[in-house]
Amino acid sequence: MNLSKLVRPALVGLLACVFTLFAQAQTKTVTGKVTDSKDGSPLAGASVLVKGSTTGAQTGADGTFKITVPSSARTLTVSYAGYASADVNISASNTANVSLTASADALADVVVVGYGTRKSKDVTGSVSRVTEKDFNKGQIASPEQLLQGRTAGVLVTPSTGEPGAAATINIRGTGSISGAQEPLYVIDGVPLIQGGTLGTNGSGVEGGTTAKNPLIFLNPTDIESITVLKDASAAAIYGSRGANGVILITTKQGKGGKGGVFSYGASTTLAQTARRYDLMNAQDFLLAAKKANIDGGASPDAAAAAVVGIDRGANTDWQDVIFRTAISQNHNLSWSMSNKGTSVRLSGSYDNQEGIIKNTGLERLTGRANISQKLFNDKLKLEANMTMSRTENSYAPLSNNAGYQGSLLGAALQFNPTNPIYNSDGTFYQPGDQRNPAQMLAYFTDNDYINRFLGNFSASYQITKDLSYKVVLGLDNSKSQRTSFADPRLGSNAYGGTINVFGKDYGNGIQGNGRTTRQNLETKSTLVEHYLTYDKTFNEKHAINAIAGYSYQSFENRYNASFGWGLKTPVTGPNDVFVKDYNAFTNYANFVPGYDKNELQSVFGRLNYTYNDKYFLTVTVRSDGSSKFGSNNRYATFPAFAFKWRALEESWMQNIFGGFLSDLSFRANYGKLGSQDNLGSYAALNLQQTFDVGSGPVTRFIQQGNPDLKWEEVATTGFGVDFTTKDKRLSVTLDYYNNKRTNMLFFAPTPGGFAPTANWWINLDGKVINKGWEASVNYRAIQGKKFSWDISYNMTTVNNNIEGLPTPINTGAVSGQGLTGAFAQTLTNGSSIFTWSMPVFNGFDGNGNARYGNGAANRLVGSALPTFFAGLTNNFSYGRWNLSVFLNAITGFHVYNNTANALFLKGSLRNARNVTYEVGNGPENPFNPGSVSTRFLEKGDFIRLANVNLSYAFNLKKNSLFKSMSVFASGQNLALITGYSGIDPEVNVDKNINGIPSRGFDYTQYPRPRIITVGLNVGF
């Protein structure tokens, strides 16, 4: 027997056992749970690392983790986005339960800055970041509502209270005088198409409607954070797209460990009118009408007879007829996981938002997938972020500029309160040329749909430890269709008019014919980008982060529209059914179609240099070329420079301020940005168009080109200071900015009037200057074991001024009977954009006629632009309860009450039209004309209790089906303090003239509702 054959395996086995026991003795397993310190809710996807090593794990859906660590390990570092990291000692325990606190130290945050991220302490430009925990709560239709009032320097003004209404967003004032005032939106690295929605109305009511918000396709609950780049040093990486600022939207990525986390949220919302017009009831209306006739010169008997003629016997509150309590619902479901280089988040949502005006609302279905995968030892990373949505909007017959008869809201405000809704035979009561609001709701139908896909596909490769390469393909495609119908039973004396296309009238009115209009809009954008990133630290003092890249983006838009009239199957009786089918008509004609395409290509670079974590320098340059310009000026270069000094890193500053400050930094920046978004795609070219409107081909010259156009430019200068106290309870940021816009693109009359078209694009002489101060303050007032109170405050001042303009420019069309061609705003030197221009009203004389100063000549009387706005948030927590109260204020601006100018005049009573009590009982003569004047110009200053949110997080058992559960109740627009007599001073109805934008008009606006929302969020 060979003994060695027996001994050798035994020895090997013995050694293996010894080695295993030794290895086990050198490691241990630590378990624990990571929760939010305020409400105890679990934090899924938190990172748990052995301090000083790469050994780590992530928490699961219930916040728990399990990690095997060397027995010599003493400390675990636990971190989670938006929270301060914590170290826990494990030397004497195998259990580590950790409560993380939402980060109050801004220096620890990581900020998205465009083509990368930076730590807040390294950011040299003016950048503001709002995360999910600070978003406005409740019924949110589009992303900008999340940050309204929350960020210094950013003013969000909704056009109306309609679900999905467009908003005007100004970052550090407004500079453009011919449109394109909106910032650039970038979602997960893809710059968005600005359009994609249809805003006109062809069903038969005069005027049009403002296009819907282009961001309504995005589900707000998918958003992780919103970053605002406010100055050139921050936004210059986007060059020609950044003149109005840049808003970077980052969506949520996969978290939650191998098993993943399921989350479901549901909410129900009730919305009502927050304020209504104080209209006269039937009895008071008749008394006021009698007095108005007497004041107008009629004898008491004649006045009484006139009142008998307008008394229809009913007592109808027409505001009740058109308004409703809107009930809405929202559902969100998501699954998120992250494990071994794979990260996935899938989400879906359904929104059904009713508007407080009947027949209005928004229904949205969205699906989103964010997927990333690391390969080849994590050197290669593949990412895909995709959103697909379908949004359907329902519209009432409202418009921005209806005539004296009014669109739906105007008709309801002035309709005789003694009028009944129906005649005795069941038909709608329709007197003369007035419009029955109930009939308008029943006989006008207007709906659209918007299908939109946004995708960002990228691959990045770590070439070396310090150098990486990334390629990005971005796709943004939108297709929308809007179809409207007007019932043939609408009376010709109140509705209709023919449709005119290129000088030819069609349709023969609505009565007996009916009408349908269909519009189609398709927009496409393709983005291709390549860039290299170099990131290296030398000798532990010199840090360089550099980016160099190339970008190409194309934009394409197609529009067509047509209308039909004359039903194949007539509809006459009150019980006949009007089948709303676009193909049910006998006659059709086309509107003039539209098509344009333009391209933008760029090279860009950015260098961040840091010395000893003390001195920070950023140099950015981007060169853009746009197909919109002629060959001489197609390209432009936009540089920017910024410097930051962390003064407290100096020993001598530490001696002065180190006792009570943990950070003190000073910043300075200068740069140039460009703009060409408002410019037509073929502005440099002479164009003619041939089309067929139903009567044969027609050719016309449509544009005089200007090959010498240059880029509009904005030069920004600023400086700022940041400091945080030693205990990190107080942090303050203060900024000064000065922005000058030159070479302004403007659609001006052609010189000498010799061109075949009336206007062409030029670079206008002069400049627009915005300057002011911003301040942001965060204070942890109380930080107890059970109760805490955090305060956040921001404020902004804006001084807007025009210099060097060759001639004043009028805008702001005023609507109303006898006001054709009237305007109320002027852009002129020495004043701000949107300065009001009109006669000064000095009250009524003894006969009730208006008196005006300076011979009724126009005077400059204030601006529609606010000079100050601020937001204040108080966050309270007690145990598992959380309460957030947000107020915002805007001052220093005026609103033109065009609703009162058009509708609320004493003379309306003589014509059997209703007015407010103030007007009905006022001293005005019934024959006094409603001329444009400061009579209708009011201060818009207000303070609003904008958002209140109360939530409770349940303490669930470990074996519960649900890993987390919370309930909440929120209120929006709960209180408004203002001297403005209209519904709401925060309004911006579009009243442009020849494309020159207006500001601050209130004309039969869709009221902003008061909203109460209750909801539930669960994780499992």
Can you describe this structure in just a few lines?
The chain has 1020 residues and is mainly beta. It is built from twelve helices and 55 strands.
Beta content comes to over 45%
Rounded to the nearest angstrom, the radius of gyration is: 32 Å
Number of helices: 12
Outline the biggest β-sheet.
22 strands, antiparallel, barrel
**Spans of 5+ residues with little confidence (pLDDT < 50)?**
1-12, 14-25
- Assign a percent range to the helix content: under 10%
Shape: globular
**Structural class estimated from helices and strands:** mainly beta
Distance between the termini: 64 Å
Strand tally is 55
Averaged pLDDT, please? 87
Structural notes for this entry:
It contains 12 helices and 55 strands. The chain is mainly β. It has a 22-stranded antiparallel beta barrel. A hairpin with a 3-residue loop joins β26 (about 515-540) and β27. The relative contact order is 0.12. The model is unreliable at about 1-10 and about 15-25 (pLDDT under 50).
Features:
1020 residues, mainly beta, 12 helices, 9% helix, disordered N terminus
Helix and strand layout, with pairings?
Layout (H helix, E strand, L loop, with lengths): L2 H23 L1 E10 L10 E4 L5 E3 L5 E7 L4 E5 L6 E4 L8 E3 L9 E3 L4 E3 L7 E5 L12 H4 L6 E5 L8 E5 L12 E4 L2 E2 L31 E7 L2 H4 L10 E6 L9 E13 L8 H14 L4 H11 L7 H5 L3 E14 L2 E13 L6 E15 L4 E16 L12 H7 L22 H7 E19 L4 E20 L12 E3 L2 E3 L8 E24 L3 E26 L17 E6 L3 E18 L3 E12 L8 E12 L4 H7 L3 E15 L11 E6 L4 E7 L8 E14 L4 E13 L1 E6 L9 E6 L2 E17 L3 E11 L1 E5 L5 E5 L9 E5 L7 E4 L2 E4 L5 E3 L6 E5 L4 E11 L2 E11 L2 E4 H6 L3 H4 L6 H4 L16 E3 L2 E12 L10 E15 L22 E2 L6 E11 L1
Parallel strand pairs: 1-7, 13-16, 50-54
Antiparallel strand pairs: 1-4, 2-3, 2-5, 5-6, 8-9, 10-15, 11-12, 13-14, 15-16, 17-18, 17-55, 18-19, 19-20, 20-21, 21-22, 22-23, 23-26, 24-25, 26-27, 27-28, 27-29, 29-30, 30-31, 31-32, 32-35, 33-34, 35-36, 36-39, 37-38, 39-40, 39-41, 40-48, 42-43, 43-44, 44-47, 45-46, 48-49, 49-52, 50-51, 52-53, ...
Helix pairs in contact: 4-5
